[in-house]
Amino acid sequence: MNCIIIDDEATARAIIRQLCSNVDSLNVLEEFPNAMQAIKYLNQNEIDLVFLDIHMPDFTGFDFIQTIKNPPKTILTTSDPKFAIQAFEYDCIVDYLVKPITPERFQKAILKAESSKVTTSAVEVPSVEKVEGSSGNDLYVNIDRRLIKIDIPSIYLVEAKGDYILVKTEDINYTVHSTLKKIEEKLPDDLFLKVHRSYIINVDKIIDIEDNSVLIKKDVIPVSRSNRPELMKRLNLL
Amino acid sequence: MEQPNLSYIHSMSGGDEAFEKQLIDIIKVEFPEEKKVYFKNMAENNNKLSVDIVHKLKHKISILGLEKSYDVAVQFENNLIEGSTELQDEFELILATMTDFLEQF
């Protein structure tokens, strides 16, 4: 199995690489200190297995899985046993290794990966140059040289992440190489509001509001002081 | 005070001494950087970033065979999440012990 390792900790990557070297069936093609670099790599390369850390700054392992349309078999590697239940909500995850990883436990995980029926061909990874445009209720984003249609009302959050934006919808999240400013121009003003320099929210999807934050789905989003008056204006307050 | 050791590293190296040296070299580069980040975040009372770096340091504590200290680190991380710095002194003593241990390589 051709595999890659994604972990922000060099020590962890070295340990996993060493454990892989003791298994004839594994071929480590690359390792990455963050998920963004791995996503770019997956645009050009097909792999069978990912060793994926959950707890990484900016873009977590779960963000990575949600970003990829057909994620390859994935073995999570983490110091957090508490994520185990959430992990198995994803079909691609074949095992969950708690650090420090022992050789015996690693071998078991590889056996599980080898016998897993997750199909790994045709990895389709969003990696977009820009938001191309919108028409009516749709927004088209350029993903892996394809224009993917997103239903605008289904977007509940857009988050700036360095050179990328993360577009969260009811069904799937898209990582797009673009800026918050560009997508803000494409989204209807009556539905969306920039509440912070890193966040645009769909006002219809707000669950509740506290002093300096709004809850949308499970995301708690900060509201900057300067944007709060506009947010309050949008609400149908009793 | 529990002392660091190489038992975990030996157990997963399969006797590959070159790998053991390589891993310790990586830890010797990464650990001081993480420690610096930890002290900076604590000094700035940046709770979220402090939790993140304690989480990362936990792995190195376990790699150096510090089982009881690992439990202290887990509890300290939980304390930070709840806004408390209880066990901070104990955690920083663990970091100091690890620093001393790594200096011999």
What do you see in this structure?
- Chain A has 238 residues and is α/β, with parallel strands linked by helices.
- Chain A has seven helices and 16 strands.
- In chain A, the strands form four sheets. In chain A, strands 2-1-3-4-5 form a five-stranded parallel β-sheet. In chain A, strands 11-10-9-13-12 form a five-stranded antiparallel β-sheet. Chain A has a three-stranded antiparallel β-sheet with strand order 6-7-8, covered by helices on one side.
- Chain A is elongated, with a radius of gyration of 20 Å.
- With 105 residues, chain B is mostly helical.
- Chain B has one domain.
- Helices cover 78% and strands 0% of the residues of chain B.
- In chain B, helix 2 runs antiparallel to helix 5.
- Chain B is elongated and about 45 Å long.
- The two termini of chain B are 21 Å apart.
- Chains A and B meet through helix 1 of A and helix 1, helix 2 and helix 3 of B.
Short overview:
Chain A folds into 2 domains: 2-115, 3-Layer(aba) Sandwich (Rossmann fold); 152-234, OB fold (Dihydrolipoamide Acetyltransferase, E2P).
Order of helices and strands of chain B: HHHHH
The helix-strand sequence of chain A is EHEHEHEHEHEEEEEEHEEEEEH
Mean pLDDT score of chain A = 84
Derived from helix and strand composition plus strand pairing, the structural class of chain A reads alpha/beta
- How would a crystallographer describe the biggest sheet of chain A? 5 strands, parallel
Alpha plus pi helix count of chain A: 7
Shape of chain B: elongated
Average residue pLDDT of chain B: 95
**Helix percentage of chain A:** 25-40%
Count of structural domains of chain A: 2
